[in-house]
Design brief:
Chain B: Belongs to the cytochrome c oxidase subunit 3 family. The structure holds 2 protein chains of 2 kinds. Chain A is mostly helical. Chain A contains 5 helices and no strands. The chains are: A mainly alpha, B mainly alpha. Chains A and B meet through helix 2, helix 3 and helix 4 of A and helix 1, helix 3 and helix 6 of B.
Chain lengths: ~130, ~210
């Protein structure tokens, strides 16, 4: 923890080593966020790419990058804060989130494809 | 953590944590754990929308309903409120009470603009007959985006409460701790919104 206090941006903080941001840090995060927000909107609204799949992958990929930018520059995540416990909690949550998301989509996709196809008439006669 | 290190040979070995315990730190960790549990709520809602998001029940699809210009403005509002909250935190560290209050107020205005635009969007969707009861897609959409909006609403209530607190009692340690918790909450909601506009709006319109 002691090395944390010596960094220039934290020199003025009053001792409790929770990660504080600097003006520069916030501005870097802000500019990166604007760029990373504008690109996916531009890709979808402008219809820039022909491949829908590639556009979707790009949008989600840029979204993940932007989440990391927010975590680092706005939420001041780093492996050292709180003796590493915030990072541990984050990693644990990400694993659970990954299992929940991937598992749900996987199971429900198979359920969908293996169900009997339903026509409009059948749907109308549903209870 | 330098708990059991022995610096010098003539010094007695210490088998306990020599660093001072900071209550702020444990609050921050506890609040972070709350945010992670909140993250799980949103993960479940995202998963639900991922499963149900294409079931239109012969109703309108995202491409018919969503106005991406409005979503872009909404995103800008939330992003701006995030950076202005950051500026408020910087002023708080400088012990500048008035400036902190001003930046918090600006954050509140952007937050209110975000909520207003979202309510406007919801109102129009329901008016067009695309309410939450129309299809599975719209049910999951309203649940996910509505839950996020509800979080922002409570964040606003918290923000106003803290502004009054800071005005009355100044930037004392308690208010600093609360402002730092709200800071994490506010930035966290912005993180969730990244998922919402990417996954729900942009991928939805993409089809």
């Amino acid at each position: 923890m002691s090395s944390h206090h010596e960094s220039a941006s934290d020199a003025h903080s009053d001792g409790h080593g929770a990660g504080h941001g600097s003006f520069r840090g916030y501005m870097i995060g802000f500019v990166l966020s604007i760029i990373l927000t504008a690109i996916p909107f531009w890709l979808v609204m402008g219809g820039v790419l022909d491949s829908k799949l590639f556009t979707a992958v790009l949008v989600m990929g840029i979204g993940v990058v932007q989440i990391v930018v927010h975590m680092v520059y706005f939420l001041h995540m780093n492996p050292r804060s709180e003796g590493g416990w915030t990072m541990m909690a984050l990693i644990f949550t990400l694993i659970i989130v990954g299992i929940a998301l991937a598992g749900s989509l996987w199971v429900m996709h198979h359920l969908n494809t293996n169900m009997m196809p339903m026509t409009h008439e059948m749907m109308k006669n549903m209870p | 953590m330098s708990a059991t290190q022995v610096q010098n040979t003539d010094e007695k070995p210490q088998f306990y944590v020599t660093e001072e315990h900071h209550p702020e730190n444990s609050t921050m960790l506890g609040f972070w754990l709350y945010l992670m549990s909140d993250c799980l709520i949103f993960a479940v809602l995202f998963a639900t929308h991922g499963v149900l998001g294409r079931n239109y029940a012969a109703g309108p699809s995202p491409a018919d309903l969503f106005d991406l210009n409005l979503v872009a403005i909404n995103t800008a509002m939330l992003l701006l409120s995030s950076i202005t909250y950051g500026f408020a935190m910087l002023q708080m560290e400088r012990n500048a009470k008035m400036e902190t209050l001003v930046w918090l107020g600006i954050t509140g205005v952007f937050g209110a603009a975000f909520l207003g635009l979202e309510l406007y969007e919801f109102y129009h969707l329901i008016l067009e007959g695309a309410g939450p009861t129309r299809s599975a897609f719209l049910s999951s959409f309203f649940t996910l985006v509505g839950t996020h909006g509800l979080h922002v609403t409570f964040g606003m209530i918290w923000l106003i409460t803290l502004m009054v607190q800071v005005k009355k009692h100044g930037l004392n340690p308690e208010n600093r701790r609360r402002l730092m918790c709200l800071s994490m909450f506010w930035h966290f909601l912005d993180v969730i919104w990244i998922g919402v506009f990417s996954f729900v709006y942009l991928l939805g319109v993409l089809g």
